[in-house]
Write a structure and sequence with these properties.
Blueprint lengths: L7 H10 L8 H15 L15 H15 L4 H19 L4
């Protein structure tokens, strides 16, 4: 397993995402999930296990992450996009922190 460094801004955004005043919608949550997974590479997408046939939530997460991975986005780019996405959600939903 390879260690993927996390920027301080990414670490802060991870914490901040847990303190939004309202829950983001499913599309926003999938976007955060896919950027988080690509940003941490834990595990790298190529090593990720596919969800089972009846795991609809797992499939949605996997497919969204696959979309991000297929663009060739680096973990650094994903971390930057994650920070921007969390900041946009803080503006939209408010933030307790």
């Amino acid at each position: 397993m390879t260690f993927t460094p996390k920027t301080p801004a990414f670490e802060t955004a991870i914490k901040d995402s847990r303190n939004l005043k309202a829950k983001p919608d499913n599309d926003e949550l999938l976007e955060l999930y896919s950027l988080f997974k690509q940003g941490t590479q834990d595990p790298p997408f190529a090593e990720a296990q596919k969800p089972g046939m009846f795991d609809l939530t797992g499939k949605a997460k996997y497919n969204k992450w696959k979309e991000v991975a297929d663009t060739g986005m680096t973990y650094q780019q994903a971390q930057e996009k994650y920070v921007k996405a969390v900041n946009a959600l803080k503006e939209k939903y408010g933030f307790e922190g």
